[in-house]
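Meet our chain:
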Amino acid sequence: MKNLFKKKSLKIEKLIKKTLNFDEKTDIKRIKVSKTNSECGVFHKGEHKKVFAYSAKTACDKNNFVLGFVLTPGNYHDSSSFAEIYQQVITSYPNISTIVADSGYRTPAIAKLIIDDNRTPIFPYKRPMTKDGFF
């Protein structure tokens, strides 16, 4: 009985190692953190230049008056800070009926949030990101 149990446990162990890839070395992810301000993120200005920075997302009306703003680390995507700035603007100005945003905010979750609030989202056209020859 003990031999049978040992054989089964060895088979299970091999299976786990095979499926979870324990034998392969994994790369360690190194995160760069500022020594003076740990809240800011690494912002890529171009191909080679990387700096620690903050990003200010603003919401404006048609006359370019600022209705709300959010400060985020420079490495945060635009869409991750949308909910916070959207709630700021909607609570202060509930009569807004149309939301115009750039392509950084064009995600299904953001569009659904705006439509569920009975407002009209307007985003720029974005070409389909499919494989060549798909259509």
Notes: DSSP finds three helices and five strands in the chain. Residues 2-20 form the longest helix (19 residues). Helices lie at 2-20, 82-92, 108-116.
